[in-house]
Amino acid sequence: MAKPAKSKPKTRLSPAEKARIAELFDRFEAHESDPRTELSYDSPYTLVVAVALSAQATDVSVNKATDRLFKVADTPQAMLALGEEGLKPFISSIGLYNSKAKNVIALSRILIEQYGGEVPLERAKLQALPGVGRKTASVVLNELRVEPAIAVDTHVFRVSHRLGLSKGKTPDQVEADLMAIVPAPYQTRAHHWLILHGRYVCVARRPKCADCEVADLCPSRHLFVP
Q1: Would you tell me which CATH number, out of the four given (3.40.50.300, 3.40.50.1950, 1.10.340.30, 1.10.8.80), belongs to the domain 44-143?
Q2: Which residues are catalytic?
Q3: Is the pLDDT of residue 9 over 70?
Q4: pLDDT recorded at residue 8
Q5: What DSSP assignment string belongs to 143-197?
Q6: Is residue 4 scored above 60 in pLDDT?
Q7: Long-range CB contacts for residues 142-145, cutoff 8 Å, separation at least 24
Q8: Of 41, 59, 126, 183, which has fewest CB within 10 angstroms of its CB?
Q9: How confident is the prediction for the chain on average, in pLDDT?
Q10: Where does 15-34+148-219 sit in CATH, by number?
């Protein structure tokens, strides 16, 4: 199957547009210098599990489940001992919990058998784990500050379009655009800034433009403010 074509990244920006984008991220940094995931974790392993569980689920619902789960199983060895059927009751409130339980147990086994129980912080190895695709790997590598990466979820997709950072029609296209135009010093944090901005300010139906620190830099503001 042919891979979908990616949009051509915006590599040729006018000086004015470069300045606007730099100012956007300057303000995000001024508002929150070290943005982090809202998922609860205390190790690379629990981060991988939490992010894998968060697909098509809210961080709040995942945290409620993992608060109980990680007290019982916060290592690959403990998770494998818990087993698929033992894991399901802890995550049954999360969507797709049957397939997620299968993947978490499978990836835990692989970590033990191939990596000595440690999470390999290399993209190719992470993405090879069951239930860990490109997006999950990007979140993990970015959160741990291992690799500049911008995982595109529904919030990042929406905010990127509203702020005029991308016209991409797919998450991969938006990711390519963002990685091409976000200033290098901000690439390990842009993912979280855009997510948090979309989650709390630039919300889907009624964006809170009056509370937005970058409203004057937003080309879409006129769509929501009379």
Answers
A1: 1.10.340.30
A2: 135, 153
A3: no
A4: 46
A5: HTTSS------HHHHHHHHHTTS---SSHHHHHHHHHHHS-GGGTTTHHHHHHHH
A6: no
A7: 142/188, 142/191, 142/192, 143/36, 143/37, 143/47, 143/192, 144/44, 144/47, 145/188
A8: 183
A9: 92
A10: 1.10.1670.10
